[in-house]
């Protein structure tokens, strides 16, 4: 199953998230592909149920789901051990991937 990384061009954080995602996948020894999904406009944000950039999804399920009524082109923040950041840490991603791998859905 592919892992999607959703982003928009103006986001300063999506490339850091991509690098951390690549490291987490390698450390978890997963044979999966990362599919980049560029969100270009507000309509696409609504259609994709975009929670902000960067977002990581597996099977259309966000790894950090949030209740949301309005979808928009905007940056996203993650509560990391070092405080709020614009991307999740490698360890945070690994933890999510490990749980999904144990369930057998990845």
Task: Provide key terms for this protein.
106 residues, alpha+beta, Glutaredoxin
What does it look like?
This protein is an alpha+beta fold. The protein has one domain (about 5-105): Glutaredoxin (3-Layer(aba) Sandwich), CATH 3.40.30. Helix content is about 35%, strand content about 20%. It has 3 helices and 6 strands. The strands form 2 sheets. A 4-stranded mixed beta sheet has the order 2-1-3-4, with helices on one face. A hairpin with a 2-residue loop joins strand 3 (about 55-60) and strand 4. Helix 1 (about 15-25) packs across helix 3 (about 90-105). The protein is globular. The mean pLDDT is about 95.
Number of helical stretches of at least 4 residues: 3
**Shape by Cα distribution:** globular
End-to-end gap: 6 Å
Q: How helix-rich are the residues, as a percent range?
A: 25-40%
Q: What is the topology, as strand order, of the major beta sheet?
A: 2-1-3-4
**CATH topology annotation:** Glutaredoxin
* DSSP, total strands: 6
CATH architecture: 3-Layer(aba) Sandwich
Main pleated sheet: 4 strands, mixed
User: Regarding CATH, which class?
Assistant: Alpha Beta
Brief rundown of the structure:
With 106 residues, this protein is of the alpha+beta class.
Question: What layout of secondary structure does this protein have?
Answer:
Blueprint: E1 3-7, H1 14-27, E2 34-38, H2 42-48, E3 55-58, E4 61-62, E5 78-80, E6 83-85, H3 90-103
Parallel strand pairs: 1-2
Antiparallel strand pairs: 1-3, 3-4, 5-6
Helix pairs in contact: 1-3
């Amino acid at each position: 199953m592919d892992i999607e990384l959703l982003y928009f061009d103006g986001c300063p954080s999506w490339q850091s998230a991509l690098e951390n995602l690549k490291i987490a996948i390698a450390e978890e020894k997963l044979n999966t592909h990362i599919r980049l999904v560029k969100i270009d406009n507000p309509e696409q944000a609504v259609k994709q149920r975009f929670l902000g950039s960067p977002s990581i999804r597996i099977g259309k399920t966000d790894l950090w789901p949030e209740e949301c009524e309005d979808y928009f082109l905007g940056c996203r923040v993650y509560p990391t051990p070092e405080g709020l950041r614009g991307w999740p840490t490698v360890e945070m991603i690994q933890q999510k991937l490990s749980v999904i791998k144990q369930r057998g859905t990845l």
